[in-house]
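Page 47, continued from p. 46.
Same chain as before, 170 aa.
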Amino acid sequence: MKRLWMKTSGSIKLLILVVIIYVVFGIYNPELIIESLTTFLTLLKNVLPVLVLVFFLMFIFNFTLSTKQIVKILGHESGVKGYLAAMILGIISAGPIYMWYPLLSDLQEKGAKNSLLAVFLYNRAVKLPLIPMMIFYFGLNLTISLTIFMIIFSVLNGLLMEKILLTKKI
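Result:
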């Protein structure tokens, strides 16, 4: 039995621990468990569409784009086109950021530049659906200025990230 427990992965051990905790708390306070499960199901309902979208995009990328094409678009020789692609994709991306991490990790493994991944993540702060509300509350000048600065600094941030990571490797 001990050997089986040692061979069990950490995620399965965590699942077993969580189930045990739920059973123990369920015996003493079933209302708390019902509330917790309801909250979990609500969160799952909200996150599941984005998760499905990200995994669908990963499937499409893996199915249609070769590693050579990804490196051409987002690799070390991509140049200005790579930065433009990362900016645009970052701005139009939607959903919680942590849902994009598997896709970005996959792109990084296929040869995408770290600076372009940083540009993508930085540009996620530009939210197109919220721009009209921002204009309403803060005015057109501030909205345009802030958006332009965020895009410019995304590139500077990406370049800085690339320099930092290159010096760490040496």
